[in-house]
Design goal:
Layout lengths: L6 H16 L11 E6 L2 E4 H17 L4 E4 H6 L13 E8 L1 H6 L5 E8 L2 E9 L4 E6 L3 E4 L2 E2 L12 E5 L4 H5 L2 E3 L4 H9 L5 E4 L6 H13 L3 E4 L14 E4 L2 H11 L1
Parallel strand pairs: 3-4, 10-11, 10-12
Antiparallel strand pairs: 1-2, 4-5, 5-6, 6-7, 7-8, 8-9, 12-14, 13-14
Helix pairs in contact: 1-2, 6-7
C-alpha cells in the first residue's frame, strides 16, 4: 500500500519536537545529561533520548502501523535494523545529529528523519533547529528549502572544490583547496543540497542509516550523484565503505580517482 505523505505536516512535527525536547536543553545540559556510548567521541544526551521518544510517538501516531528505527534504540537493540527490510513504512530517526557539537554548545547540529519502504528511502527531512532551516525531499519530486527547489553546484576543478567530511579522511585536507568537517551529517547534507559545498566524503564505520538515508535522497533529488567507493549504490542499511557525493556521476568518478 502506498501512502501519500504530507511533507509539511511531518516537518511541523519535527519542528515541534525540536522546540520541546532539544532547544530548551541546548547550552543547558548538566553533567548528568551527557553519557558516553562507545567512546569519548560517541555521546548521548538527555535531548537525544527525549527527542527520539517524542518523534517515535508522534510519527507513528501520524502514520499508524509504521515502524521506527531510531539511533538510540538501535544502540541498545541492533536487531532493530532488520525493520528496514520490511514492506511496511519505517521512520529512521537521528534525534540529535552532531551530539558532540550540541553538547559543547555549538549550533551545527540537526534532526534527521527518513521514511523508508522496502529498504528504499522515499522521503527525507533534515532540520537545523538553531537556524530553523528545514530541507525536505520526496523520491521523484525534488528537494526543497521552503518553496525554493534545491540544486547541487559544480566546480571547474576538483582540486578547488569545497568538501564536507565525515569519519577520518585526512587525504582530503591535503588535496582539496577548501575542505571542512561539519561534525554533523545533517549540516553536511544541507550544505551539499543547498549549494554551499560541492562534494561530500563519509568514511564512518559503518555508514549508518540515520545519518545518511535522508541526506542521500536529498542530495540526489537536488541533482547530485552518490555511491560507495566500490560503485555500489547506497541503501538505508548499515554498510561498510566510503560514501562519495558529487554534482554528477562524471564528477563522482573524478573525485574518487583524485582522492584515491
Amino acid at each position: 500500500m502506498t501512502v501519500k505523505v504530507d511533507l509539511l505536516r511531518v516537518a511541523e512535527i519535527i519542528r515541534e519536537v525540536a522546540g520541546t525536547e532539544v532547544l530548551p536543553r541546548f547550552r543547558h545540559l548538566t553533567a548528568a545529561d551527557i553519557q558516553q556510548k562507545t567512546s569519548s567521541h560517541d555521546l548521548v544526551t538527555t535531548a537525544d533520548k527525549m527527542s527520539e521518544k517524542a518523534l517515535r510517538s508522534r510519527l507513528v501516531d501520524y502514520m499508524p502501523g509504521s515502524l521506527v528505527v531510531g539511533e538510540e534504540e538501535t544502540y541498545v537493540n541492533p536487531d532493530a535494523y532488520e525493520r528496514l527490510k520490511s514492506d511496511k513504512y519505517v521512520w529512521v530517526i537521528d534525534p540529535v545529529d552532531g551530539t558532540n557539537n550540541f553538547s559543547k554548545g555549538f549550533d551545527d547540529f540537526g534532526i534527521i528523519v527518513a521514511l523508508v519502504k522496502n529498504c528504499q528511502t522515499v522521503c527525507g527531512w533534515v532540520y537545523a533547529p538553531v537556524r530553523d532551516e528545514m530541507v525536505v525531499a520526496e523520491l521523484g519530486s525534488g528537494a526543497f528549502f521552503g518553496n525554493a527547489r534545491l540544486h547541487v553546484v559544480d566546480t571547474d576543478n576538483v582540486s578547488d572544490a569545497l568538501a564536507v567530511t565525515g569519519g577520518t579522511y585526512p587525504v582530503l585536507k591535503e588535496k582539496l583547496k577548501d575542505t571542512y568537517w561539519t561534525h554533523s551529517a545533517a549540516i553536511a547534507y544541507q550544505h551539499l543540497a543547498m549549494g554551499k559545498a560541492s562534494y561530500g566524503v563519509f568514511s564512518t564505520k559503518p555508514i549508518k542509516p540515520w545519518d545518511h538515508a535522508a541526506g542521500v535522497l536529498l542530495h540526489g533529488e537536488a541533482g547530485g550523484y552518490s555511491a560507495l567507493s566500490d560503485g555500489r549504490q547506497y541503501t538505508p542499511y548499515p554498510v561498510e565503505g566510503t560514501l562519495f557525493l558529487a554534482p554528477s556521476k562524471e564528477r563522482w568518478e573524478e573525485v574518487r580517482e583524485f582522492v584515491g
